[in-house]
Amino acid sequence: MQAVLAEDLDRSLHALKQVESEAARAGHPRLAQEASSLLAQLSQAAAGGQGGSPSPWEFISEGVLRLQQALEEANHDSAVASAGEPPPAPPEPERPAAESLPLARDPELVRDFVVESREHLTNIESSLLALEQDPANAESLHAAFRGFHTIKGLAGFLEFAAIQEVAHEVETLLDLARNQQLSVTPERIDVVLKAADYLKAAIRQVDASLDGRPLEAFADNCNLLWMLRMAATAAAEDSQAAGAAQTGLEDRQTSGPSASAAVAGSVENRAIKVDTEKLDHLVDMVGEMVIAQSMLRHDPDLALNRSPRLQRTLSLLSGITSDVQKTAMGLRMVTIGTLFRRMGRLVRDLARKTGKQVELVTAGEETELDRQIVEELADPIMHMLRNSIDHGIEPPEERAIAGKDPCGRITLAAHHQSGQIVIQISDDGRGLNREKILQRGRERGLIPPGVTPSEAELYNLIFEPGFSTAERVTEVSGRGVGMDVVKKNIVRMRGKVEVASQPGQGTTFTLKLPLTLAIIDGLVVGVGTQRYIIPIYSVVEMLCPSRDSVTTAPEQGEMVLVRGSLLPVIRLNERFGVEARAQHPSEGLLVVAEQEGKRFSVLVDEFIGKQEVVIKSLGPMFRHVRGIAGGAILGDGRVGLILDLEAIFAWKGEA
Question: What is the pLDDT of residue 233?
C-alpha cells in the first residue's frame, strides 16, 4: 500500500511541475504561483512525513480547489482578451498508429463501455434536440452534460485518449452554458452534435475490436477540438446576454423538480446487463418447453388416465409454462422510444439540408415490442420520414401562401391494437398527387389502359421498385428506392402498410406489425393427411360455400361469390401435391384472406383449431420453398407448415 501511495504522490508532483511550467509559459502568473506553492507543500510534507509533519494528502483537497479557481480566472482572462477572435488551430499531436492499451484489452470492460456509451449518446442526442427547441431547458442541458461527463470518465479509465479529449472539450463547452457564460445557439448545437457523431464512430471501432481484430486508430479529432474551443471563446460575449436570462433559467430550475430530487425520490431500479445471445437462447429453450408441455397434454396414453390428481398437476404445469413463456417473451420486449429518439436527429438534419422548417412530434414512446422488430424498423421509418420531408412538407413560403404554419409537423406515433403494434407516420404537407401517380403508373405499364384503380391500389404503386414522382433526383430522395425498401422490410416482418392521403392536408402511413417474430397466432387447417398453419393476421373470415355460389370464369379459374364479390379459389392440395378429401369447394372450407389489398379464398378440408405456435426455421435446404414461411411443432408432436399467403396468391396469378 505504501508503495502505491508513493507512486501516486510522485505522479502528482510531476503533474504539478508540468502545470507550473505551462502556466508560466502561457502568461498566467497566479496559476503558476498556486501550482508552485502546492508543489512546495507536498514536497516538504513528503520529505518529513515521520516527524509529526502533516500528511501530504491533507493538502490535496484545499490545493486543488485553489488551482481550479486560478484556472477559471485564467480562462476568463483569455476569453476576454481574445473575444471575437477564434483561437489558433491546435498543432496536430503525434498519435500512435492504434490505441491498444492494457485496460482496453479487457473485453468485459470494453463491452460495458460500448453499451453504456451508446445509451448515453442516444440520450444526449434527444437532450440536445430538446435544448435547441428550448434553450432555457435546464434539465436537458444538465442531462447532456452528465452524458458527456460519464463518457469522458469511462474513456479515461480505459485510456481511449481521442474519445476522452472530445468528451472533455464538449463538457467544458456545456459547463459554460450551465453557468450562463455561454448562450445556446443552433450553431453550437451543430458543433456538439458533430462531437457526438465522432464519439459514435469511435465507439463503433471499439466495438469492432471485440471480435479479436486490432483496434484501428481513431479518426483525427484536431479540427473538431478546434471547433469546440472556438465555440467556447464566445463566453465573454455571451455573458451579459446570459446574465439577463439567468433569472428566468433559475426560476425554471426552482419551479420544477430537480434531477437530484427526482433520483432521490424514485424507487431503486435494479437491473443487470445480459448478452442478447444468451437471452435469445433462453427464449428458444422456453419455446421448446412449451412444445414439450403441449405434447404432454395431448399424449393419448395420458388421456386415458382419468386421475383427478394427474389432471390438476397437468393443469398446474400448463399455467406455469404459460407464465414462464410470457416472462421470457417480455425479456425481449423494449420500448419504441429509443427508435423514435434516433429519428429526431434525422428530421432535424434533413430539414436543415432541404431548407424547410419541420417539427417532429412523438406519441406512444412507452409502447413495447420485440427487440428484433425495433431493429428491423429503423430503415423503413427512416425512408418514410425522408419521403415526408422531401415530398410531403412544403417550403415555408409555400405553406404561408396556403395559410399553413411555416413550420411543418411530422407525427410519429405507436400503440397496441388487437394484438398488433400499430405505427403511424403522418405529416401535414401537400399530400400525394393522385394524378401524377396515375400518370407515372400508366407510363410504366403498372396500370392497364382503361382500368381505374381504387385509391388503395393507386397509393400502393409508390412501393413499386424504382417508382418515383419526383421531377429530379436530390440527395434526400427521388430514385424510387426508399419506399420499395419499406415494403420489403415490413412484409418480411409479417406486417402490412396502409396509406391515406388528402390533397393539401397531408399523408399518413400506417404500419401494422406483430408484437414478436418468435411466436405467431395461427389457424391449424387440414388438407388430406397434412396440417398447415395460416397466420391469423391475414384471415378475414371462414365459410362453407354453397354449391351454386361457386363458378368458373374464363381465364380466371374457380371463383366464389362472397358478400357480393367474386373471389378466386386457391386449392392448397394442387399447390403442394396433396390428395384432398374435398373435391368441390362446397364439400370443404374456404378461408378468406387478404394480401396487397386484394382478397382471395383458400380451400382446405377442415379447420382443426386456433393455436399459438413457436416459429421454427426450415433450414437452408428448404428456405426457398415457395409458399412456406416456416414450420411449427403442434401439440401432437407433428410438424405443421406455416403458409406464406402472399407467395401463394402470387403463385395463383402466375398460373
Answer: 75
All cell numbers assigned to 552 = 368458373
Q: Hey, what's the cell of 454?
A: 381504387
Q: What is the pLDDT of residue 53?
A: 45
Cβ atoms within 10 Å of 375's Cβ, excluding its own: 11
Please give the helix or strand (H or E) that residue 156 lies within, else none.
helix 138-158
3-class DSSP state of 256: coil
Q: Which helix (H) or strand (E) holds 45?
A: helix 29-47
DSSP 3-state percent helix, strand, coil across the chain (nearest 5): 55, 20, 30
Q: What is the DSSP letter of 416?
A: E
Q: In sequence order, what DSSP letters do the residues of 93-125 get, joined into one string? A: PP--SS---TGGG-HHHHHHHHHHHHHHHHHHH
Phi and psi for 638 in degrees, rounded to 5? -80, 155
Contact criterion met (CB below 8 Å) for 411 and 361: yes
Give the DSSP letter of residue 392.
I
Can you spell out the DSSP letters for 181-208? SS---HHHHHHHHHHHHHHHHHHHHHHH
DSSP letter (8 states) at residue 636: T
Whole-number Å distance between alpha carbons of 457 and 470: 20
Q: How many Cβ atoms sit within 10 Å of the Cβ of residue 499?
A: 18
Query: Grid cell 423503413 — which residue?
Result: 380
407 residue type, one letter: C
Handedness of CA 412, 333, 154, 158 (dihedral sign): negative
Rounded Cα distance, 206 and 95, in Å? 17
Q: Residue 554's beta-bridge partner residues?
A: none
Residue 491: partners with Cβ closer than 8 Å, 6 or more residues away: 646
Q: Quick one: average pLDDT of 516-539?
A: 85
Rg (CA), the chain: 33
* Whole-number Cα distances in Å, 426 to 117, 343, 367, 499, 654: 32, 14, 18, 10, 36
Q: Is the pLDDT of residue 477 over 90?
A: no
What are 558's strand-pairing partners?
552
Distance between CA atoms of 56 and 2, rounded to whole angstroms? 13
Which of 625, 577, 573, 559 has its CA nearest to residue 604? 573
* Predicted structure pTM score: 0.61
Retrieve residue 529's grid coordinates: 393427411
Report helix, strand or coil for 465: coil
Residue 186 cell numbers, joined: 443552433
Rounded to the nearest integer, the mean pLDDT of the chain is: 77
Q: Could you tell me the CA-to-CA distances from 605 to 112, 474, 585, 617 in Å, in that order?
A: 55, 54, 9, 26
Rounded to 5°, angle at Cα 37 from 31 and 8: 95
Give me the residues paired with residue 561 across strands: 566
Whole-angstrom distance, CA of residue 514 vs CA of residue 490: 10
Q: What gap in Å lies between CA 180 and CA 518, rounded to an integer?
A: 52
Q: Which of helix, strand or coil describes residue 491?
A: helix
Element (H, E) at 530: strand 530-535
